[in-house]
Amino acid sequence: MSTKTKVFGNLLVDVIKKERCVGCGACAASCPVKSITFENGIPKLVGLCISCGICYNSCPRSMFDETVVESKIFGRNRIEKEAELGIVKSQYAVKTTQEDVGRSCQDGGAVTSTLIKFVSESERCAVVAAIDENMIWQPKPFVAKNRAELVKAAGSKYTSCPILVGVDSAISEYKLKEIAVVGMPCQIRALRRIETEEVANSRLSDAVNLKIGLFCMETFDYEDLIKFLESEGVEVSKITKFAITRGQFIAYQGEKKVFEVKLSKLKKLVRACCEECKDFTSEFADISVGNVGSPDGWSTVLVRTEQGESALMTARDAGLIEVKRLEEVGGVIEEVLKLAKLKKNKN
Ligand SMILES: Cc1cc2nc3c(=O)[nH]c(=O)nc-3n(C[C@H](O)[C@H](O)[C@H](O)COP(=O)(O)OP(=O)(O)OC[C@H]3O[C@@H](n4cnc5c(N)ncnc54)[C@H](O)[C@@H]3O)c2cc1C
Ligand code: SF4
Ligand code: SF4
Ligand code: SF4
């Protein structure tokens, strides 16, 4: 029985027009004839389509068979007690030992420090989310090749950017051969779909050898968030850090807290695509990182694969991070479990 190849038109109908597109950039990065671009966070067909079906097959929202992908990546499926967090080899509390990272990072600096070690070898880079210099707090995919660029791109941006477009540019423009990617759970799913599909752009999956996923409950629509903050009198261009802690959304200017609001008051700003998402801890990443579960100033790190363990321990052995058992610093894995469960039940 032959099934008709699904192309960009099908993505438009099944995903984009239904506001299910997460804006990961997998379709644009994968198109072999570069016919897809992004306009205002939405993929658009701008050239000839050769009906290869690769964009449809790369999208984490057109289809994502968790059971199949999981067994291909981890060699088995999760058992009942792993239902909420997925397959985890080990869990740690991690803190950077580096002053420059400590000043710029969101929590414990686990992500930036691990990446600093990763890019210290030649022909390597990390695709991260930097701030677009022409916009206020708008993230853009950025190919970081050294420590200074990683430190500059540290910190959480609570809106989304098409991170996979950065992977394409690391390969095509910078000719880099080994790539680490930081992404939200949905973006990590896109990378894993590309890695495990038969008809996909293997150029992308072959080059990405470390996937660091962040914990994520939701992201905000960029325009709506900026408008909201301005309406509350916040001078967004002066904000140096945003944070979400214990149910509060907080804005800082240097050390000073200049705005704070209950997260529940921002529900209207959450992107429609996040409403169907059940993955809190980036269940398909090599390493997943968040703040919940650890004390302030530490990152909670869930290691899922050999690559993840190796990247983290190489950074530790280089003296870039302290790695402790969660309990040693008063961390509580049940807090992570609670939020992971909440997300699965609520969406
Ligand atoms: C939208 C969003 C929602 C989050 N929600 C939660 C939550 O509910 N609970 C929780 O415990 N943790 C959450 N986190 C994770 C948390 O904010 C920290 O990113 C995490 O603890 C890592 O801290 P760190 O100090 O190790 O990271 P850092 O060393 O500061 O590095 C962070 C890395 O993430 C990249 N990055 C930042 N924003 C984005 C983005 N939008 N897309 C892709 N990459 C990005 C940066 O470029 C940098 O490389 C969220 C993060 C984001 C971006
Ligand atoms: S050429 Fe292939 S990847 Fe590009 S838009 Fe058409 S179906 Fe999608
Ligand atoms: S691949 Fe990503 S950006 Fe493209 S349609 Fe699917 S979710 Fe949207
Ligand atoms: S809630 Fe889900 S869809 Fe939304 S940004 Fe987070 S991982 Fe992506």
Characterization of this structure:
The protein has helices at 8-16, 26-30, 54-58, 66-74, 99-104, 110-118, 147-152, 163-172, 185-196, 202-207, 222-231, 306-317, 333-346, and strands at residues 36-39, 42-45, 90-96, 124-131, 139-144, 178-183, 208-214, 241-245, 248-253, 256-262, 287-290, 299-303, 321-325. The longest helix is centred in the C-terminal third of the chain and has 14 residues, at 333-346. It is an alpha+beta fold and 347 residues long. The protein folds into 2 domains: 8-219 and 270-346, no CATH class; 222-268, Roll (Nuclear Transport Factor 2, Chain: A). The chain is globular. The strands form 3 sheets. Strands 5-4-6-7-11-12-3-13 form an 8-stranded mixed β-sheet, sandwiched between helices. It has a 3-stranded antiparallel β-sheet with strand order 8-9-10, with no helix packed on it. It has a two-stranded antiparallel sheet with strand order 1-2. Helix 6 packs across helix 12 (306-317). Residues 22, 160, 184-186, 216, 218-219, 273-274, 277, 279 line the site of one iron/sulfur cluster (SF4).
